[in-house]
Write a structure and sequence with these properties.
EC number: 2.7.11.1
InterPro entries: Kinase-like_dom_sf (IPR011009), Prot_kinase_dom (IPR000719), Protein_kinase_ATP_BS (IPR017441), RLK_Ser/Thr-Kinase (IPR052232), Ser/Thr_kinase_AS (IPR008271)
Radius of gyration: 31 Å
Strand order of the largest sheet: 5-9-10-8-7-6
Distance between the termini: 76 Å
Oligomer: single chain
Low-confidence stretches: 59-150, 488-498
Structural class: alpha+beta
Membrane topology: Single-pass membrane protein
Shape: elongated
Strand content: 5-15%
Number of helices: 16
Helix content: 25-40%
CATH superfamily of the domain at 96-256: Phosphorylase Kinase, domain 1
CATH class of the domain at 96-256: Alpha Beta
Mean pLDDT: 74
Subcellular location: Membrane
Largest sheet: 6 strands, mixed
Main location: membrane
């Protein structure tokens, strides 16, 4: 106590401060310490505010591969449920406004367009940056840039705001206004994980709004997959992802609107009295689809495996250009990977046999599906049709039987008028059977498929190199017969596999 008494007496002494008398020393000490603490807190506040401002301004220039941090309201769940993709998510039947133009096309032949990467002309600096990036796809894509197509962006006139560095960030209110609060009459497609609405933006442009449903976190997963797969790419034969909405539990994707239906509707549906596609129109659509797949497989890194190539996912514009859509099942494959192992998913009738049997996935699986799609366009038949006789249920097996018995010309869709030239038909059938080779390693690359579909000469040069002593016409017939006599592939088409969707 004796040691503390002098200190206590000292602190209790009264001093004069700024004209004030009788101020105790301990009061002065507390006052100085308080000022120091306040000063430190003020400096910390200024530093934190500066950091926040810097971070907010840098969000406009995020790299295209960055996915936004998701809200914690949706939990990503690895459990998988079956999804029915039989309904197309971004299409509508042809409008009366375009019907005259479309019907005029059916009666004449148009040459297929060269591959090109669509460079968007947007007022947004991030749109321009992305257009330039999409042109840097390597030597394969360099050949396409010669005929590149410049299109006006549907985002022109909208406020400049983006959280990803590409496209446009829409608020929930923006999309409610565009779709009349998601009115039922604006629904243009439904799937297992979402509903697609037709909408009109404030600048007057039509869009397709895909509203993902929160099915045990699947909405979050599909949102991420589609953004990673096609958020940063631009190609005239890929449906364009314009923007997105992340608000609370809501996850929505905004696409360009394609109003001329999809290939399934044109082949098997009823789009009017004069809705039959000509041979030239079918080949233009299939060539465009092949160009899109070649771009995804060979021109960008990492490559994109679509996993659900089918007629309903091939949208068609009013010039009969193909637009590949629905990337909800897509997988990314790095250049150092030969394949990935994943759950078997896809649409019954289109799945490659090796993928159905082993779960090993690479771009060859998409090539097989494209082969089925090509046969479907040639014949007008569904890949699997149980209403037909037993030996015709499976399209691939029936086609091989017809080719093996030299009845290839009988497989053409009877609705096609005029009939295709024998040379063109055999070329298309040969391309399809090469894509359907049971040995995935023998299937061609999609860039080779594009060249074969576009050029008679290329195909016949390849055939002559293999069998120089035979004439070109005999070589094609024999190649078709060889394909039809190969060992039967997996029962993938005759015994329905368990196909699920992540």
């Amino acid at each position: 106590m004796s040691s503390e008494s002098p200190l206590s007496d000292e602190m209790s002494k009264k001093i004069s401060l700024f004209g004030l008398t009788d101020v105790k020393l301990w009061v002065l000490v507390c006052f100085v310490v308080g000022i120091f603490v306040v000063l430190v807190l003020f400096i910390l506040y200024v530093w934190v505010a500066f950091r926040r401002k810097t971070r907010r301004s840098s969000q406009k220039f995020l790299p295209f591969s960055q996915i936004p941090r998701m809200a914690k309201d949706i939990r990503v769940d690895d459990r998988v449920g079956f999804q029915n993709h039989s309904e197309n998510l971004c299409t509508d039947k042809p409008s009366d406004r375009n019907s005259g133009k479309m019907m005029a096309y059916l009666g004449r032949t148009k040459s297929s367009d060269n591959d090109s990467i669509s460079q968007c002309s947007s007022v947004h600096h991030h749109e321009r940056a992305y257009s330039s990036h999409s042109g840097e796809e390597g030597s394969f894509g360099a050949a396409w840039r010669q005929g590149s197509l410049v299109t006006a962006s549907p985002l022109v006139g909208l406020p400049e705001i983006s959280h990803l560095g590409w496209g446009h960030w829409f608020t929930l209110r923006d999309l409610q206004l565009a779709t009349n609060r998601f009115a039922p009459e604006n629904v243009i497609g439904e799937g297992g994980y979402g509903v697609v609405y037709k909408g009109t933006l404030i600048n007057g442009n039509d869009v397709a709004v895909k509203k993902l449903l929160n099915n045990l976190g699947q909405a979050e997963k599909e949102f991420r997959v589609e953004v990673e797969a096609i958020g940063h790419v631009r190609h005239k034969n890929l449906v364009r992802l314009l923007g997105y909405c992340i608000e609370g539990v809501h996850r929505m994707l905004v696409y360009e609107y394609v109003n001329s239906g999809n290939l399934e509707q044109w082949l098997h549906g009823d789009l009017g009295e004069h809705s039959t596609l000509t041979w030239e129109a079918r080949m233009k659509i299939l060539t465009g689809t092949a160009q899109a797949l070649a771009y995804l497989h060979e021109a960008i890194e990492p490559k994109v495996i679509h996993r659900d190539i089918k007629a309903s996912n091939i949208l068609i514009d009013d010039e009969f250009n193909a637009k590949l859509s629905d990337f909800g099942l897509a997988k990314l494959l790095d250049s150092g990977e030969s394949h990935i192992t994943t759950r078997v998913m896809g649409t019954f009738g289109y799945v490659a046999p090796e993928y159905a049997n082993t779960g090993l996935l690479n771009e060859k699986s998409d090539i097989y599906s494209f082969g089925v799609l090509l046969l479907e366009a040639i014949t007008g038949r569904d890949p699997v049709d149980y209403e037909r006789p037993a030996n015709e249920v499976n399209l691939v097996e029936w086609l091989k039987m017809m080719v093996g018995t030299r009845r290839a010309e009988e497989v053409v869709d009877p609705k096609i008028e005029p009939k295709p030239a024998t040379r063109a038909l055999k070329r298309a059938l040969l391309v399809a059977l090469r894509c359907l080779d049971p040995d995935s390693e023998k299937r061609p690359k999609m860039s080779q498929v594009v060249r074969m579909l576009e050029s008679d000469d290329q195909l016949f040069r390849e055939e002559r190199r293999n069998r120089k002593s035979r004439t070109a016409s005999m070589e094609i017939v024999e190649a078709l017969e060889e394909s039809s006599k190969r060992p039967e592939h997996s029962k993938n088409h005759t015994t329905k596999p368990e196909l699920t969707h992540e």
